Amino acid sequence: MTKTLKIEGMMCAHCEARVKKALEAVAGVESAAPDHTAGTAVVTLKEPVADEALKAAVEAQDYRVLSIA
Q: Full-prediction pTM beyond 0.90?
């Protein structure tokens, strides 16, 4: 299962690395693939994860989650 987060504020590869590390620290997340040029992060889950947990992880790094699909 995957979820795509629309994220505001990522501007470079360093930003991508921060978001990747934060998302992959959430229980149930297998991997995360942020893309600062698209403003998204595709998260692969190994078990159901609440959208709020993903949003909180990203926003704790000072980025803004606009939507989760």
A: yes
> How high does pLDDT run on average in the chain?
98
Structure-block tokens of residue 59: 């926003």
DSSP letter string over 19-53? HHHHHHTSTTEEEEEEETTTTEEEEEESS---HHH
pLDDT at position 15, please?
A: 98
The domains located in the chain, with CATH, are: 2-68 (3.30.70.100)
Greatest CA span in the chain, whole angstroms?
A: 30
